[in-house]
User: What shape does this take?
Amino acid sequence: MKVSLQDVTHVANLANLELTESERTAMLRDMNSILDHIDNLNEIDTTNAPPMAQMAVLQSEQASREDILEGLRPSLPREEALANAPANDGIFFIVPKVIGR
Assistant: This one.
């Protein structure tokens, strides 16, 4: 599957990115290169490859480690964080709407 310049422009618009013509051309080349690499990987026979396992460590488990606990610092109090915000409602930051332009 190849990506077209129209696809790149569409994705850039969805991401609210203003790309120049040269940036769109570079993005087209990069995206097609990535897809070509994925196609190459899909052609590899992995029938006899043993499955791999990775151990997922939950954040709560990491925070209970003694060596990490020493490096943690307290969070900024909400009132202090909101005081630095250009706009807030007392609980949350208020940010401009970026979806549905």
About this structure: DSSP finds five helices and no strands in the chain.
